[in-house]
């Protein structure tokens, strides 16, 4: 009954970070992810050399103070290529996942909350998309229109939509029957408000977990396609093309393939840990009662 | 005396989808219920699980569509009212749901939850902080609760938040579905006192759905006993409790623990489960479980009979005039 204003509730974001940092798995994941994203963003300043500058006299050198991870068969600095390759990996992964999550979210919520006919239509669309094996589909499209980064992004995005869409649809369907949604209807909340204010926040958590765990898959797909020569075009550094360059020379210069493999492994571990930790954090009930 | 809410012959019908071995059809979860609630009064609806009491409540709150009958609120027909128009009435007709925590949106803070009615009903420009403080004080929660989330509060506290939310906009009719369910006895008492106090202060009519007879006895003015989607007895609470006529009411009262060991109430035990509403018994629908059933009960549907300040539907009602301790 005092005049002081009410204390502010901690924001959802703040709450999530607070709990994430207390989980060792989450902390490790967050550190690795920050490292990868940071080095990708700061590539021009971190990378000691131009990743595509050839330097034939220095070709196939082992790791040294001048070249931390050695050089490849045309004398390019491998460390610089790894750093710049991370940039390419994220350039593929983020728009791919972002686009797939956004489209999957809209379609999934529409299917889950909307009328039956819409649900049937959208599920049919999901099933059609899902019936293409991603790599085969990507190879076919690349063979048709030629390899490019954008083609890779579009193909992986299209085939990932159903994964997110189906999760959102199922979550929406079960939440729709929850008593708090009925309670909102009884208060007169509009459909838009119910979907935006009450359904969306409860769907976003599990979706974020799924997306975080999916990033390594997409990075791996990009690397795989680039390894096959179907992804990123040659001079551009990519972890996959590093592997491609390295595998024929594995007996004499193993560091090339190791340099391409380690970031892939780190990405997988980092995002998976982060995803696992997020999964525990986004469910409010698992945060424990009376938490401060 | 004009009623705030006047329900006449309301039927709520649900389609039943046919399976491999059964045909499609429909069931009447509520099958011709009439009752009226006066301004500022409390009406209790009692019945077993599956008797249709929650469905009736939801039909009044506009959450289920009533297939037949009429639901008049201050003379206005609610039955086929489009949602756009019903929305305005949702300020006056509010509902509290069974699950105290489950009926609160889990990602909203208590402050957001209790001020949501203002936002939904487009009351901008109100000082929501002040409203939140007022509402928390009204239901007896400290202001710190504004920052809590539903998973951080107890069932009793969540119930109070539910009350605050329901009463935010000064409604005229509160539909409370099992307001004491899941609360321990001391909290139940607090809850009922809170409702009674708010009713006095705000002049609100309450329709309370419960299977807790003690709750009904203490806070309602009138009571309706529901069985298989129909009212079997209806009237002033005192009359119905002191002189129940319908055997089902008798059985319910007999099953209720009586705090007074000297009270003499006939023991009636009901056999078996209530029949399925997919397959309603003919005649009086209670005859399959009624200890007093006679041949006439299985063929002829009993009509309402008014007896004093209550009414019942039974061919052979208990009689209390001569000897209170031993009905016929």
Quaternary form? heterodimer
**Helix content percent band of chain B:** 25-40%
| CATH architecture classification of the domain at 87-285 in chain A | Orthogonal Bundle
The mean pLDDT of chain B is 84
Portion in strands of chain A: under 5%
| Shape verdict of chain A | elongated
CATH class of the domain at 87-285 in chain A equals: Mainly Alpha
Biggest interface between chains: A-B, 32 and 42 residues
User: How many strand units of chain B?
Assistant: 12
What does this structure look like?
The complex is a heterodimer of chains A (292) and B (328). Chain A has helices at residues 12-21, 24-41, 43-46, 78-113, 116-130, 134-145, 149-176, 179-187, 191-227, 239-247, 254-282. Chain A has 292 residues and is mostly helical. Chain A has a domain at 87-285: MetI-like fold, CATH 1.10.3720.10. In chain A, helix 2 packs across helix 4 and helix 2 crosses helix 11. The longest helix of chain A has 37 residues, at 191-227. Chain A is elongated. By secondary structure, chain B is an alpha/beta fold. Chain B has nine helices and twelve strands. Chain B has helices at 53-60, 83-89, 110-120, 128-138, 155-167, 185-202, 213-219, 237-242, 247-255; strands spanning 3-16, 25-38, 42-47, 68-73, 76-77, 93-96, 173-177, 205-210, 222-227, 230-236, 305-307, 310-312. In chain B, strands 6-7-8-3-9-10-12-11 form an eight-stranded mixed beta sheet, with helices on both faces. A four-stranded antiparallel beta sheet of chain B has the order 2-1-4-5. In chain B, helix 3 crosses helix 4 and helix 3 packs parallel to helix 5. The longest helix of chain B is centred in the middle third of the chain and has 18 residues, at 185-202.
